[in-house]
Fold ABC transporter ATP-binding protein.
Amino acid sequence: MNALEVRHLHKRYGRHVAVDDVSFDVEEGEIFGIIGPNGAGKTTTVESIAGLRTPDSGSISVLGFDPTTDRAQVRERLGVQLQESSFPDAITVAEALDLYASFYRRPADPRELLEMLGLAEKRGTRYKALSGGQKQRLSIAVALVGNPKVAILDELTTGLDPQARRDTWDLVERVRDAGVTVLLVTHFMDEAERLSDRVAVVDGGRVAAVGTPAGLIAQASAGQQIRFRASRPLDESVLTALPEVTRVEVVDDRWLVTGEGQLLSSVAGALAREQVVAEDLRVAQRTLDDAFVALTGRVPASPSPSERRAR
Ligand SMILES: Nc1ncnc2c1ncn2[C@@H]1O[C@H](COP(=O)(O)OP(=O)(O)OP(=O)(O)O)[C@@H](O)[C@H]1O
């Protein structure tokens, strides 16, 4: 059985269509990313899955249960960490977790959870005294305290410093390894590419594509690219004649060669035959950013300078 099934979901706010026929499946045990620009409809979609918003039409199944009619069953199986979750300033970490544990019939052991999330030493610390990363980890602990089979994590690392981002990514992998299916909402491509088994690209309330990060990159990015500086002049036809090469651009001594298949060895062989040395040779690594641009025509959000160094 799929952990989640979303079929033809529609939601409008007044005249504004926020979610426009969204469908996807999430398999049990995977980390499934939903990526898209601000306002794409990601949060509306996941809040509908969590039963926090009522869709206008379409159907949702959480392990076979409908969030609008089978609320109790969904609540027992689904943990939610939503954007901007916050707690009273004076509550301690242990109190917050005990409180949420009391809402469930079979909660996880709060002590074990704090251990796993690296918050054991902060048990007695008040919420207001926690760092941004620790607050995020507490909100993940709250999402997991009901022992869910599926966890929704929304914009998990926004505002975190590089080390906290990396730690949080490790944590998400540990959650998945513990058997929890993860639905990860993010507008950061590096995060989605690093963590997700599969990704849905959402734009303007619609699903533009679903696939593995590698599959989306391959599908959306035309070929590989090699950049180098030629040690001496070279006739373009030497490279355009190669079957692997689809395009050659030259500015002064700088070459950009696009192609497919065994592009690198083919180009290297041709250059060697011409006794040209390729200096500063670089093979451009395609990323999910490229796929996102190709699929949506938009430039993805970048981590802020303080977040970016986590790459
Ligand atoms: N309660 C609401 N009332 C009116 N409009 C809303 C409401 N919630 C969301 N919207 C609008 O619906 C669209 C989708 O919003 P949503 O929050 O689902 O997108 P998102 O992809 O999660 O974006 P973000 O990353 O900024 O949270 C946006 O244009 C938003 O302004």
Remarks:
- The longest strand covers residues 2-13.
- The chain is about 35% helix and 30% strand.
- The mean pLDDT is 89.
